[in-house]
Specification:
alpha+beta; globular; six-stranded mixed β-sheet
């Protein structure tokens, strides 16, 4: 994911925000704010030209900063199907191997393996970097996201009840984590 993908990444994010069950956020940030909050080496996009039909292999997420000019050009003409990005959970050294992530897929691209491919790419990049835990908070109403996370090795840690207000309503959040089996 690079600045070349910014407009479409933020548009996919906006769609998730508008649906109401993906995030507490109510506005789309400017690219500079979004970019600064995410780890450069652990964010990826899935591009339309790399996704086939449901019977064929899933999306091939493009690496951050990839020198794939085809992917960059594609991003400019409406090809970002989804994205995944990780952020540090703390600047304390004890939590150096723990990140939090978000994954968003355009509604028209759901059910085609895009989110699974993105999460698998994130798992690979974080494990290669020595990160031992990926965590996420998901609204309990977002059953598709909960099922997706379980299918790629995340487990439910618990439910944070009435953790925040969203449009004036208290919301619960299910805390999920994936502990790497390859990081000692």
């Amino acid at each position: 994911m690079t600045a070349a993908h910014a407009e479409e990444v933020l548009a996919v994010y906006r769609l998730g925000i508008d649906e109401g069950d993906a995030t507490f956020e109510t506005r789309t940030p400017a690219w500079a704010e979004f970019d600064a909050a995410r780890l450069t080496e652990h964010r990826f996009v899935a591009l339309r030209d790399s996704v086939q039909t449901p019977a064929t292999p899933p999306a091939r997420p493009e690496a951050t900063g990839a020198a794939d000019t085809k992917g960059v050009a594609a991003a400019r003409v409406g090809h970002v199907l989804g994205w995944v990005a990780a952020s540090a959970v703390s600047d304390r050294c004890a939590y150096a191997g723990v990140v939090e992530h978000s994954v968003y897929v355009h509604p028209a691209a759901r059910g085609r393996g895009v989110a699974r491919a993105l999460l698998q790419r994130l798992v690979a990049s974080t494990e290669a970097a020595g990160i031992w835990t990926i965590q996420s908070g998901v609204f309990p109403e977002n059953e598709a996201s909960l099922a997706l996370h379980r299918s790629v090795g995340f487990r439910v840690i618990g439910t944070r009840e009435r953790i925040g207000r969203h449009h004036g309503v208290w919301r619960d959040v299910v805390l999920l984590e994936r502990r790497s089996p390859v990081i000692p």
